[in-house]
Design brief:
By secondary structure, the protein is of the alpha/beta class. Among the domains are: 11-231, Vaccinia Virus protein VP39 (Rossmann fold, 3-Layer(aba) Sandwich); 242-285 and 383-424 and 513-585, FAD/NAD(P)-binding domain (3-Layer(bba) Sandwich), CATH 3.50.50.60. It has 17 helices and 26 strands. The strands form five sheets. An eight-stranded mixed sheet has the order 6-7-5-4-8-9-11-10, sandwiched between helices. A six-stranded mixed sheet has the order 18-13-12-19-26-25, covered by helices on one side. Strands 14, 15, 16, 17 and 21 form a five-stranded mixed sheet that branches. Strand 8, helix 6 and strand 9 form a beta-alpha-beta unit. The radius of gyration is 25 Å and the shape is globular. The relative contact order is 0.11. Bound molecules: flavin-adenine dinucleotide. Flavin-adenine dinucleotide binds at residues 249-255, 272-275, 279-282, 284, 287-288, 384, 403-404, 412-414, 416, 433-435, 469-470, 507, 509-510, 530, 532-538, 540. Flavin-adenine dinucleotide (FAD) binds next to helix 8, strand 14, strand 20, strand 24 and helix 15.
Length: 585
């Protein structure tokens, strides 16, 4: 298939309630809230069991409208001191318009947050955090069996309770197959509960066969019975210990984001940086949240699109970011062709986060001249130092203003990271750059810019001033040379008049030889997040979630394939092909 998109749910609205037209079934019964208590929460014993860890691991087949998730999260927040990692599987997620409509009906704050942060209609894993990180949602878009098998392979923490809430077995048999039950058992441990609304004999026998001791739960007067069970079968699973303390070197956006992810999961973090918080590339006070999408369905393409969507709901918030749309302009036929391919892979009328504009639309909608444009509708301009400061403001994060000594658990030192991973031939280095703050050009002498320009040029418009950039200097230039370059390369957006410069910021960004970031393990227990190049605003938060998941023993919110594009060891094979001698060998 020539796309990464996933078909959304087909919703009929009956009496203002959603109905799944594809399955000819309801999403929840009229007493959905009470049903959740009686069918899922009480039989799961999640609120009563004292053999569970600090973070409950709950998995649901059939995420639907997110009602069970929201009610479960609310129960955890109100009744326990624990955290929740909720893992859900959905073949046909809701489209944004349906989330909005549901949000109008469900005033619950968590539901409002979920609807605002609903994952895109793209296949695979997505992660969202709520309630200051105490509630984490991992959601798999696609075939449940594929998702379960991936969970079996990559989630180390066993599941404490399963909520089996797919459409009825008669209407959606694929969700109740023996392979599904086997996969459920494979991520279970002694004491794991399985609960479902159906009383189907086939489901009861299927779960019993894989090791669940099943019972019927009286649901009168609403309905007759539902099913619940406890896993008593053999299990390969243990609860892997979670470290209590982690040391991170480097307090740019990469290190601060990992620190916050871990701290919000109860881990004490020591964060070292001799220069203070956000003094490397992350000193940039105007950074565009954007994404250089690719239309080739490669692992890199998959990674970039997921990183952008992961960052968007977390970062496009008013305390650290100014929301704005961002346009990438195509100036020649080759670039138009590339943009068309990207649109084919990601463009979606039901989820229009990305829009392809032809020359006419560019002129009409943006008032600009280009052969075509890709418009990222919900982007933002981020103040990285402010964001880093907020991320670090957590009682479990202890910032130490000095270079890290000894071995870190997480290396986030941009190009200095190499010194902590001597055995790994990391092809990373510094590329310097400069941004200019200029007085906003006089409107009748320049195009009226309502969007940020990224890619070909870099112009972030604002009321009082604009920020333009950015140079790409293999070795550092004089600041005045960089200023002249920035003005010249963005002249088309600035009009012919004199440009009044206000100030500039310079920094180095760490870039790898293939322009992809470096994320993952460099040793058995040492991770790296570096080389975020010109996209740190989107790739660093995603990297943080990936690394934190590995440390916690959770499913990582990126596919194994996408992770190959950023793997730290990818340079070894390349160097072998090029005949470069092994470092230390
Ligand atoms: C001109 C310019 C424009 C940019 N524009 C954008 C943009 O529009 N959008 C975007 O997404 N990105 C942009 N970027 C890139 C973005 O700023 C970077 O990707 C991001 O800041 C990288 O963050 P980092 O944490 O990996 O590295 P850094 O912020 O460089 O942090 C690394 C930290 O490691 C510390 N360190 C080094 N050695 C040690 C040690 N021994 N112990 C402890 N700490 C150590 C350093 O002091 C430093 O603070 C731009 C960058 C530049 C330079």
């Amino acid at each position: 298939m020539n796309t990464e998109r996933i078909e959304p749910a087909l919703l009929d609205w009956r009496n203002n309630e959603p109905f799944a037209a594809r399955y000819n079934d309801i999403y929840y019964s009229a007493d959905g809230h009470e049903e959740f208590q009686r069918v899922f929460l009480e039989p799961s014993a999640l609120m009563q069991r004292d053999d569970l860890g600090d973070c409950l691991q709950v998995a649901e087949l059939g995420f639907g409208t997110g009602l069970n998730f929201v009610l479960c999260a609310q129960a955890v927040l109100e009744n326990t001191q624990q955290r929740l990692h909720y893992i859900a599987f959905e073949a046909h997620p809701l489209a944004p318009a349906d989330w909005h409509r549901l949000a109008e009906q469900r005033p619950l704050p968590l539901f409002q947050d979920l609807a605002k942060a609903a994952p895109p209609l793209l296949s695979g894993w997505h992660r969202r955090g709520f309630a200051d990180g105490r509630i984490q949602l991992s959601i798999y878009h696609g075939d449940a069996l594929n998702g379960l098998r991936d969970l079996n392979a990559r989630q180390q923490q066993p599941i404490d309770a399963w909520f089996l809430d797919g459409f009825e077995p008669r209407k959606n048999p694929a969700m109740w197959e023996p392979e599904i039950f086997s996969a459920i058992a494979a991520s279970s441990i002694s004491g794991t509960r399985a609960c479902t609304f159906t009383a189907s004999g086939q489901v009861r026998r299927g779960l019993a066969e894989v090791g669940f001791e099943m019972r019927k739960v009286d649901q009168r007067p609403r309905k007759r019975e539902s099913l619940a069970g406890v896993y008593t079968g053999k299990s390969q699973r243990v609860r892997p210990p979670v470290p209590r303390h982690i040391r991170i070197f480097g307090a740019g956006i990469a290190g601060c984001a990992v620190a916050r992810e871990l701290a919000s999961q109860g881990i004490n973090v020591e964060l070292f940086d001799p220069n203070g918080i956000a003094h490397g590339g992350s000193r940039m006070q105007a950074s565009a949240l954007h994404c250089r999408l690719l239309g080739d369905l490669s692992a890199t393409a998959e990674f970039r699109a997921r990183a952008y969507h992961h960052a968007r709901p977390n970062l496009a918030r008013p305390d650290v970011a100014a929301p704005i749309s961002a346009a990438q302009l195509a100036l020649n036929a080759r670039e138009v062709e590339k943009q068309r391919r990207i649109d084919e892979v990601y463009g979606d009328s039901e989820d229009p986060w990305l829009q392809f504009l032809d020359a006419y639309a560019v002129s009409e909608q943006l008032g600009l001249t280009a052969r075509s444009a890709l418009l990222l509708k919900d982007s933002a301009i981020i103040n990285l130092p402010q964001l880093c400061t907020k991320l670090v403001a957590h009682p479990r994060i202890h910032f130490v203003r000095s270079a890290g000594v000894g071995q870190p658990d997480v290396i986030a030192c941009a190009s200095k990271s190499r010194q902590f991973a001597p055995a790994m031939p990391l092809e990373i280095g510094d590329v310097f750059g400069q941004l200019e703050w200029i007085a906003a050009p006089i409107p009748d002498q320049s195009p009226r810019l309502s969007v940020a320009i990224v890619g070909n040029g870099y112009v972030l418009p604002g009321e009082a001033h604009w920020v333009i950039g950015s140079t790409y200097e293999q070795s550092p230039w004089e600041a005045a040379t960089a200023t002249a370059h920035n003005i010249a390369s963005n002249r088309a957006f600035l009009g012919a008049g004199e440009v009044q410069t206000i100030r500039h910021q310079r920094a180095a960004r760490c870039v790898s030889s293939d322009r992809d970031p470096v994320i993952g393990k460099v040793d058995e227990r040492i991770w790296i997040t570096a080389a975020h190049g010109s996209m740190g605003s989107s790739s660093a938060p995603f990297a943080a979630s990936i690394i934190a998941s590995e440390i916690l023993g959770w499913i990582v919110p990126a596919s194994t394939r996408a992770l190959t594009s950023v793997a730290p060891d990818r340079f070894i094979a390349r160097q072998a092909r090029r005949g470069v001698k092994k470092v230390g060998g």
